Request: fold
Amino acid sequence: MLKQVIAKIKNRFPAPEVHAHCDGPCGVYDPASARITAEAVVSMTKKILDLEVPDPSDKAATIAYQNTLSRYIAIKEEQAQKTKEDLLILWTDYFKPVHLEKYPDLHDTFWKAAKLCSACKVEVSAEHANELMDAVQKIHNMFWATKDRDVSWYKAS
Amino acid sequence: MLKQVIAKIKNRFPAPEVHAHCDGPCGVYDPASARITAEAVVSMTKKILDLEVPDPSDKAATIAYQNTLSRYIAIKEEQAQKTKEDLLILWTDYFKPVHLEKYPDLHDTFWKAAKLCSACKVEVSAEHANELMDAVQKIHNMFWATKDRDVSWYKAS
Amino acid sequence: MLKQVIAKIKNRFPAPEVHAHCDGPCGVYDPASARITAEAVVSMTKKILDLEVPDPSDKAATIAYQNTLSRYIAIKEEQAQKTKEDLLILWTDYFKPVHLEKYPDLHDTFWKAAKLCSACKVEVSAEHANELMDAVQKIHNMFWATKDRDVSWYKAS
Amino acid sequence: MLKQVIAKIKNRFPAPEVHAHCDGPCGVYDPASARITAEAVVSMTKKILDLEVPDPSDKAATIAYQNTLSRYIAIKEEQAQKTKEDLLILWTDYFKPVHLEKYPDLHDTFWKAAKLCSACKVEVSAEHANELMDAVQKIHNMFWATKDRDVSWYKAS
Amino acid sequence: MLKQVIAKIKNRFPAPEVHAHCDGPCGVYDPASARITAEAVVSMTKKILDLEVPDPSDKAATIAYQNTLSRYIAIKEEQAQKTKEDLLILWTDYFKPVHLEKYPDLHDTFWKAAKLCSACKVEVSAEHANELMDAVQKIHNMFWATKDRDVSWYKAS
Amino acid sequence: MLKQVIAKIKNRFPAPEVHAHCDGPCGVYDPASARITAEAVVSMTKKILDLEVPDPSDKAATIAYQNTLSRYIAIKEEQAQKTKEDLLILWTDYFKPVHLEKYPDLHDTFWKAAKLCSACKVEVSAEHANELMDAVQKIHNMFWATKDRDVSWYKAS
Reply:
């Protein structure tokens, strides 16, 4: 039944033969971009949760705290958004029907990862930030497997 | 079998109960944004194909032609990219597992539409630009149906 | 006297005959873009005013509140800015001296609308957000009237 | 009659007393930003017109020429857009009804200048680029006059 | 010894003869852009420090305060970032090995100025904001001296 | 003598003790971002040089060629700019006076690399694109050495 679905999908895609030059390994795709920004989401989430609220009567400390908190939230937002964009570029431009055949949970994986990016914006959740890292690692493995390359996973932080 | 797949997908999504406030009709989503930019893609594609190449010996006309062509290509690129982004916001943020149950081709529809946006950048193809408009209209119908609203489809151009 | 002013304005505009290809209905302009972002301004303003301040002793709730508030303010800012940009594109690129003749309050309408966008950033005012929606609706009516088209006004939210 | 129009405009503006803190000279506005980008428009226009078309049989020279031409057009576009944005910030945020009373051609001046920015994108016209510089200089004079300051006009290029 | 270092630097730079057309004073560079945004950093820093915290029981005033504070922090961030970008364009594109010979502290000056931009984001420090203004003024003097022009330093605010 | 220069530099830097929390390995920096975009510059440069010019009488092929060439030039520009930005973040935010002591050619290395980014925009030069890759690799080695980590260098393409 899955084969039929895939056949149907392939039939409905715009003229793949036109894009033949993209089927080869000529583009520069690397999930490392998404990994770096996802690490920043984890780091910012952790730093927000670790911030110590100063005594409200200490005005200088309170302003410094608010400046830091505001910036950390904005950076978390920006980095989660970049992670989402970089992952979606892989989904929309790199992965092709032939890969879907090999990875039937391709759509589900990316939908879940993209929704995790949004969850990391909406919430300050170390749990969801870590789940996002796991999702990026899963995509890292999936991606390099399609290229038959063994690129090791590491974290910068 | 599809039901099993959907059940599996739902099981693997991040804590939907946390996002309960988003399940209601509180957000502002409207496929009209994507429709407007897709129209611009159609229009730019058509204008590029209709441009008349001036006589190379007429330097002023040649420079004007190159300026116009360069801008049209850049605008087509930008508008196709915006269409892609606006469609993907619907896919990643508005549509939820409950909608997937109702529209089993949800992922396929958005993947195809996103790949059409990329195709409209890579090529100067009136055919693909029109297919993109059709894909946006399909999403327009799907979207408003999930809200039980009858919003009529129109084009600005 | 108004006619004289308009005649004077027309005399001072850069070579309209050069832009003859733009005088026709070839461009893709649609006030729906500004309507969607203005709706987001109204929605965000309302959500900010409706947020419940948690007990300061509940650290987790306080962080969640600050994250949400910070994001809502940033989204309000961004959407008000986009509304302003989309309205000003209509004013600077779509509307031409011939329209000013028909709508002598054209400049006033757009100046007021743009200043309302700024007011919606500076303040958290449901009143000004609603006035912005009214201004966008007025421009919607004015715009489609210049095209002799009857496009109905609706809201996505 | 103009006084009546102005009175009418003032009546219809959103609660100016709310913005009292902005009526003083506390913001940082300076038409120099628009002057710098307008100079870039003039410079890019001139450079495009001065480019020498290489012999089509010289492939290396032709590619270099196309790279340069493409970039100059894109930079002209970007700088004209920035000029437009910086001028419109002055119009929508700095200038207030009281200034309109003093400069009845305020709206006309900015509309004309904004349309010149668009013309400088659409065309490769040294004439319109120079007219844009003149428009920016007029706004420079108008702006500093409202602040009773004598800031001299200069060009960086 | 410094001369040797400079000679070494010059030897290792990419083919300066290729860029001969840039060696002349044809580009449009002006430290005024960085000066305007640095003034905004000073202004925003001062405004943040001067904000009066409302009584927490006054909900309307508290929301207005949070909206204002959030925006001021975001504007400070944005303007400090723009200052950094504009300064670095001067360092990477305008200044050339021949200038380094004349100003041996060129790298140090820009490194310090860029780090001050970052410090003005991280902190709410009037002292560092003023030091940034001084750094921009130093660069203003250095820049115009390389062009043998006497452009007077002024502030818009 | 170099030690004196460094001592002087350290004396003139803004309050390093304030930033003590940044001296630890808490930030997320990774030269892989710059490596990915530099690879794209190399790839785009190569593709531009490899494009075959169609017969001018074949209008469809000529339009396709111009669309492709225009996009490749724009992508090269964008990726070179991103490379520059990512490298400069390392230079201005990650590297500190203590690193300069260890790497006296730190400034020179980054200045050269940034100028190579600009050269890769201005030209279509495989040689300079490759030199940019080498510069990024040198920075990769320098960066990980400061962290006493052995992260292997690889290319995605």
Notes: Confidence is low (pLDDT under 50) at residues 9-26 of chain E. The radius of gyration of chain E is 20 Å. The longest helix of chain E spans residues 59-94. The interface with chain D takes residues 25-30, 32-33, 36, 39-40, 43, 47, 151-152, 154, 156-157 of chain E (CB under 8 Å).
